[in-house]
Amino acid sequence: METLALSLSRKLYHDPLTFLKRRSQEEGGERFLDLARRMFNLDEDAVPPEAHLDRKNTLED
Fold first, then answer.
1. Which of 2, 32, 46, 55 is geometrically suited to a Cys-Cys bond with 23, CB 3.0 to 4.6 A?
2. Which of 17, 48, 46 is nearest to 33 (CA)?
3. What is the pLDDT of residues 9-26, one digit of tens each?
4. pLDDT digits (tens, 9 = 90+) for 44-59
């Protein structure tokens, strides 16, 4: 069962990781890495509340 889970996770992550690796080598590629960091909260430091003031919170409307 563990082998199956490992195999499935590798298959699921292969294409997105390959994409990020390839794009990171291109000009402007750091925006894709930044997006991945934000989507999966990969930064070690907590994101301050004022970091996203440029985005409108639709839940408040």
1. 32
2. 17
3. 999 999 988 988 898 888
4. 776 676 766 676 554 4
